[in-house]
Every structure is written in structure tokens, then in C-alpha cells.
Specification:
The protein is mostly helical. The protein has two domains: 84 residues; 76 residues, no CATH class. Helix 5 packs across helix 6. The radius of gyration is 33 Å and the shape is rod-shaped.
């Protein structure tokens, strides 16, 4: 028996349900008794819920499933529908266009979120909280700028930009920032251009001898036996 190609079969109206559901809808349409068609339609709805567990989690699904059933049947299924028949025009309606945000990003090398964080920091009244947020903002801005331009941004420029974005409400001493390295980037540069997170503890780097010498590296000896 020669098989039937998909290109020779009827077009699948709603692909998320598949061809078998569509074939069952066609069978229900062929049943002459309306009560029997209605009974089969309810059974088919329950079958769809079993085959697609995610569709039963939403509150709108009961009506949605019946609407989809009518769409599959080309709005030609005479059953006792518990919901109003959907409008055929919904198939040709296009979704509403989502407006693109037109807000101007003044500091593109930092990103819009930095400006939002500045606005949130301005709401803090406690001076200590404000100072902590300025330090966090400075580290973020230094990191983002380095990712954008592959250069290091001077702390004075960062403080100036924070002051401008906050209209003078967020300020800090440049001498304090430089003496305590408060604006160190969140990710330090390794040799070779790779980035590394700062290691905690402030001690020696892993793999470095206690005497401050060169980093210890275990060399590979191809002639060395495994049991040595």
C-alpha cells in the first residue's frame, strides 16, 4: 500500500494540536445526531487536556479550547457549545503593535539600568546607605565602561557622571575613592583578555607560594610513572 505524503493531506489548521485532533474533529462533524456530537466534543476537549497538560493550568483554557475546536472545524460544528461562538474575524486580526521605548539613553556606555539605579539611590535618606549605593554604582559603571570601550575609566569621571545623573544629590570624596580603591571593577582582567571575579579574603592568590615567589605550577612529565 502506497503511503500518503503530507503535501497531499489537508492543511493542519492549528499545528499545536496536530493532525490526529483535526481528524477527530472531522469525524465529530460527520456524526448526524447533535447530542452525540456534543458528547464527543466534550470527550475530545478532555482528551486535549490529557495530551497537553499545560493548557489546563490557565483559567481561560475552557473557553479557549472550545474556541480552538470551532476554529479547527472551520466554524462549522453544530454542538451545544457552553460558550459563545468565536468571531471568525479573530483569525485575520493582527496583534497590536508594541511601541518601542523612546526614552533617551544619555550614557549609552553605562546603559539605561544605571540611570534607574541612580534614581533609586536618590530615594535613600540614610547617608550610609547612599554611600554604599554610590560605591556599588561606581563599580558597576567602571565594569560596564570597560566592557564597552576596553579601557579603564578614571574615578573622577565616574563621580562626575553620578553627580550629573542624580542632579548633585549623590556625591563622594574623590580622595576617599582613590585611597580605598572603592571603584574597583567587579571583574578583574587576567592576562590574555579573560575576566576573573575578585577572590575573597584579600590574601595570596591560589597557587602562589607563601614566600611571595612565582606561582607554583605542576609540570607534566610524560616519562613519569602513575605510581610516583
Amino acid at each position: 500500500m502506497i503511503g500518503e505524503y503530507n503535501s497531499q493531506r489537508p492543511h493542519i489548521i492549528l499545528k499545536e494540536y496536530g493532525r490526529n485532533i483535526q481528524n477527530l474533529v472531522e469525524y465529530i462533524r460527520s456524526v448526524p445526531d447533535k447530542e452525540k456530537r456534543t458528547e464527543l466534543a466534550y470527550t475530545l476537549i478532555e482528551l486535549i487536556k490529557l495530551l497537553n497538560p499545560t493548557v489546563r493550568e490557565s483559567a481561560e483554557n475552557p473557553q479557549r479550547l472550545w474556541d480552538d475546536l470551532m476554529i479547527i472545524a472551520d466554524f462549522n460544528l453544530d454542538v451545544n457549545n457552553p460558550f459563545n461562538l468565536p468571531d471568525r474575524d479573530i483569525l485575520s486580526k493582527r496583534p497590536k503593535k508594541v511601541p518601542y521605548p523612546q526614552t533617551d539613553v544619555r550614557y549609552k556606555h553605562y546603559g539605561k539600568n544605571i540611570e534607574r539605579l541612580v534614581q533609586e539611590a536618590m530615594k535613600k535618606e540614610d547617608p550610609k546607605e547612599r554611600e554604599e549605593l554610590i560605591i556599588y554604582l561606581g563599580r558597576l559603571m567602571k565594569t560596564f565602561y570597560g566592557n564597552w570601550n576596553k579601557e579603564t575609566l578614571d574615578d573622577s569621571v565616574i563621580l562626575k557622571d553620578i553627580a550629573q545623573m542624580s542632579k548633585g544629590q549623590l556625591t563622594m570624596s574623590l580622595e576617599k575613592v582613590r585611597e580605598e580603591n572603592l571603584f574597583d571593577p567587579l571583574y578583574r582582567e587576567r592576562s590574555g583578555g579573560q575576566q576573573q571575579r575578585p577572590q575573597g579574603g584579600g590574601g595570596r592568590h591560589q597557587g602562589q607560594r607563601q614566600g611571595g615567589g612565582r606561582p607554583f605550577k605542576k609540570r607534566f612529565n610524560p616519562h613519569r610513572r602513575r605510581d610516583q
